[in-house]
Amino acid sequence: MNLVLTCKGHLCLLVDGEKRMRIKNHLKMLTAASLLALSFPMTSAFAALPVGAKAPDFKLEAALAGKETTFSLQQALQKGPVVLYFFPAAFSAGCTLEAHAFAEATDDFKKEGATVIGVTAGNTDQIEKFSKLECRDKFTVAADPGAKVAAEYKSTMEMKGKTLSDRTSYVIAPDGKILLSYTDKNPESHIQKTLDAVKKYRQANPA
């Protein structure tokens, strides 16, 4: 095996060539996401809905594996808890990272009986392509033009004069109550937070 030392800032790893390329691409995307945040100041318009609040019902046009579909929160909750994550825009650097991470963890969520749904108010005309390329056919992503649903969830932000969906994740119990409300600009932190909340719910409510 041909091992290569790869470094980024203070982080150095000894990895094989293939893994080096994956790490290099991953770090590039993280850097791009950081630069985007610095270049375009973002201001959250509201504080997110709190734990224990009733999740507003909604139905949105969506895409799964590149095909048009419709997502209904009410119908999804009949199957179990729902992981609802809002993100600013399809194909932006941070949102692409988050989609990859949720795609990789989709099977873990399914084991706990949870449904993952991503919702965005940005680049809504590209969600079919985004669902296939970045969500990797693993979960549904929905379009929220004008951030109307995001506003009901108090998950909007202003960027360059536009109202977009903020990076906020919710875990919603089958009875519609919010189990987790989490807002953080770090796209990758949302996956573990939501998965932990789903597991905690499942431990208390075995299938």
From TrEMBL:
Keyword check for Oxidoreductase: yes
GO CC, any one term: cytoplasm
One Pfam family hit: AhpC-TSA
Domain Thioredoxin: 49-200
EC identifiers of the protein: 1.11.1.24
Coiled-coil residue spans: none
Catalysed reactions listed for this entry: a hydroperoxide + [thioredoxin]-dithiol = an alcohol + [thioredoxin]-disulfide + H2O
Example GO molecular function: thioredoxin peroxidase activity
Domain of life: Bacteria
Gene3D superfamilies: Glutaredoxin (3.40.30.10)
Keywords carried by this UniProt record: Antioxidant, Disulfide bond, Oxidoreductase, Peroxidase, Redox-active center, Signal
GO biological processes: cell redox homeostasis; cellular response to oxidative stress
Signal peptide: 1-47
Keyword Oxidoreductase: yes
UniProt function note: Thiol-specific peroxidase that catalyzes the reduction of hydrogen peroxide and organic hydroperoxides to water and alcohols, respectively. Plays a role in cell protection against oxidative stress by detoxifying peroxides and as sensor of hydrogen peroxide-mediated signaling events.
Family: Belongs to the peroxiredoxin family. BCP/PrxQ subfamily.
Protein name: thioredoxin-dependent peroxiredoxin
